[in-house]
Amino acid sequence: MPEPLAMLPPRDTLGRPLHDLRISVTDRCNFRCVYCMPRAVFGPDHAFLPTADLLTFDEIARLVRTFARMGVEKVRLAGGEPLVRRELPVLVAALAAIPGIRDLTLTTNGVLLPAQAEALKAAGLQRVTISLDADDDETFMRLNDARVPVERVLAGMEAAEAAGLGPIKLNMVVKRGWNEHAILPMARRFRGTGRILRFIEYMDVGHSNGWRLDDVVTADEILRLISSEFAVEPMEPTAQGEVAERYRYLDGAGEIGIIASVSRPFCGSCNRARLSADGQLYTCLFATTGHDLRGLLRRGASDEELESDLRRAWNGRDDRYSEIRSAETVDLPKVEMSYIGG
Ligand code: GTP
Ligand code: 5AD
Ligand code: SF4
Ligand code: SF4
């Protein structure tokens, strides 16, 4: 018997399937990175989401079960800083038990990993990606604006590896005038360690980081710099829709990645949905409006209603922000990165 049409994985208006779900579990963070949560905006008076507005773990798990029925195989937990959400391993265990979820990962600034890595691994988390924007304290502390030295993040990496959450990926956002001088030192430090360093072009997410095109150090520039010291060659992409372009060191010291969402947009293969901490569904990182799933859940929607609503939302999707970025789109009231979850 052919499968009923409605049960096939949904495609959006550009034919893209839904494969990844990125979940923000909190909009709070113990850092104030200048490109994400600038202190002038996210200061003592900033109103974070009240606890009652956050999706409960049961609500998140129910949504993920629905997404899994629609073809989602990969779930990434993010924030804000996901590890500041209390009892996160309880959520991880619930998600790890959902049939169809093959890849369960988390993006963190690493500082809370020494206390939590083992519990996360035991709960079923597979890997972590850790952000580190420079390997010297002066540059890193200027960027994180929370007086956190590099050593604390390195301790987080070690804890993750010791707990079996490796191989780990490292994210370095490059912002001109702030940390491009740390590109080569970071490459030197992490080549040959098994940790995969990815350089990320600074993006115009949200509307509070004051992004300007001139602040972007492009993939070409980053590659030229790396190649001035190390011979690298491009690698085949691994998973379908992967955001990082991969390069291997010819001397066998491992690989690096470049995430060039500004200079080389990858919307054509974008199969990612995003769920905010308060249960809004966004079909693009640069969205201005979401789709209220929490309301649906709390009004007592059935599983069938939930699924048909999600299918409708994905079927109607036409986002390709990075491909149509312009002087006008930069000023749109886009949702903040800490809210929507990287
Ligand atoms: P893996 O595929 O497991 O390697 O994870 P990832 O690279 O998707 O996750 P991570 O959270 O480490 O994201 C790395 C960077 O890519 C972050 O700056 C994200 O904001 C950015 N990114 C991820 N997905 C998208 C996307 O759909 N669009 C854009 N423009 N940027 C994205
Ligand atoms: N541009 C690019 N990357 C960003 N991140 C946060 N804000 C930005 C931005 N404006 C990165 C974080 C983290 C990942 C989820 O997204 O450093 O590594
Ligand atoms: Fe926090 Fe990550 Fe944003 Fe930095 S980039 S402020 S660590 S959520
Ligand atoms: Fe996907 Fe939007 Fe990023 Fe394009 S800009 S890759 S559509 S999230």
From N to C, what is the helix and strand string?
EHEHEHEHHEHEHEEEEEEHHHHH
Query: Whole-number radius of gyration?
Result: 20 Å
**Largest sheet strand order:** 7-8-9-6-5-4-3-2-1-10-11-12
Task: State the distance separating the first and last CA atoms.
Answer: 41 Å
| CATH structural class | Alpha Beta
- The number of strands is 12
| Cofactors, ions and other ligands in the entry | guanosine-5'-triphosphate, 5'-deoxyadenosine, iron/sulfur cluster
Assign the CATH architecture: Alpha-Beta Barrel
Summed up, the helix count is 12
CATH topology: TIM Barrel
Low-confidence runs: none
Our count of domains comes out at 1
Can you say what the CATH homologous superfamily is? Answer: Aldolase class I
Look at the helices and sheets and give the structural class: alpha/beta
Q: Based on Cα principal axes, name the global outline.
A: globular
The major pleated sheet works out as: 12 strands, mixed
Helix content: 25-40%
Q: Beta fraction of the residues?
A: 15-25%
Rounded mean pLDDT is: 95
Characterise this structure.
Helix 1 packs parallel to helix 2. The protein is globular, with a radius of gyration of 20 Å. The longest helix is centred in the first third of the chain and has 13 residues. 30% of the residues lie in helices and 16% in strands. The chain is built from twelve helices and twelve strands. The chain has 342 residues and is α/β, with parallel strands linked by helices. 41% of the residues are buried. The chain has a twelve-stranded mixed β-sheet with strand order 7-8-9-6-5-4-3-2-1-10-11-12. The protein has one domain: TIM Barrel. The model has no long low-confidence stretch (mean pLDDT 95). The protein binds guanosine-5'-triphosphate, 5'-deoxyadenosine (5AD) and iron/sulfur cluster (2 copies).
